[in-house]
Structure formats: C-alpha cells, structure tokens
Design goal:
Length: 158
C-alpha cells in the first residue's frame, strides 16, 4: 500500500511539474497576423495616411517568436528606400497597425515575385550574419530611417 501511495505522489509531482512550464520556454507558433491581411498603419508625418501594409508571410523563430513580413504600399516615392518589404517582430507590428482593412488579399504577380527574392536574399543575409532577423521598431520608424541617405542610416541594420 505504501509503495502504491509513493508511486502516486511521484506521478503527481512529475505531472504537475510538466504542466507548469513558463511561457518563455514554449516556442510561439501562432500569430494574430495572417498572410493576405491588409492593415492601415501609423505613417510618418511625411507619408500619406492612406498607405497600407499587407502581410506577406509569417515565420516563427524559437527565440523571437513570430516574424511578420510585410509589403507597404501607397508611400511617396523615395530614392533612398530600397524596397517596400520588411520583417518585423509581432510586437513592433502590433504597435504599428491601426485597423484591419481587408483579408484574403495575398501578394500576387510581380509583387509576389519581388517578395520571394527579398525573402531569399534576407534569409541569406541572416545566415551570413549581415542582417538581423527582424525590426523591433514600428513601421513608421523603419520608414523614417530608410528615407535618410545611406550615410546617415548605414549603421542601422534590420
């Protein structure tokens, strides 16, 4: 009888311990953002407030959590801005967006092809240690940095 009781207590302790994982030790594999969503967002003062962003892809990193790749449209032309795609942490994107405009509007055609090239190039840059995986600042802050001539923003990498 005592042996049965000891086994029961050990099993209870083991099962309690396995259920009490901290959220930090569990990799996040979901996001409130989904490919094809179009959002309005807080724009820099020099950009039209009608600009929108589209979720192109959502990746998951064991340390950083969701990494959301976006495509921004409706911006003024700027010779210093190399492209309209960028990877952001979920927190940075959450601080950027205002309202969901529509769903089920994935990138297509030339935009999809350009994004795929951007994604692959970025992935290789991360592997070589030349780029960070994502921005931790808002979309407006990224756009403000990228609108500066390269000399002023050369030390800022995503």
């Amino acid at each position: 009888m005592k042996l049965t009781r000891i086994i029961y207590y050990i099993a209870a302790i083991i099962s309690t311990g396995s259920c009490s994982r901290t959220p930090e030790s569990v990799a996040v594999t979901t996001s409130r953002f989904e490919p094809g969503q179009v959002w309005s967002f807080h724009t820099p003062t020099n950009e039209p407030s009608s600009a929108t962003l589209t979720i192109a892809k959502v990746d998951f990193d064991s340390k950083l959590g969701p990494i959301i790749f976006i495509s921004v449209t409706g911006l003024q032309y700027d010779t210093w801005r190399p492209c309209h795609f960028m990877p952001l942490s979920e927190d940075a994107l959450s601080r950027s967006v205002i309202a969901l405009v529509k769903t089920n509007a994935p990138l297509a055609g030339d935009d999809l092809q350009a994004f795929q090239q951007f994604y692959e190039s970025g992935r290789q840059g991360v592997e070589r240690g030349e780029l960070n995986k994502c921005f931790e600042i808002t979309v407006a802050e990224v756009l403000e940095q990228e609108s500066k001539p390269p000399r002023e923003s050369a030390d800022k990498k995503p």
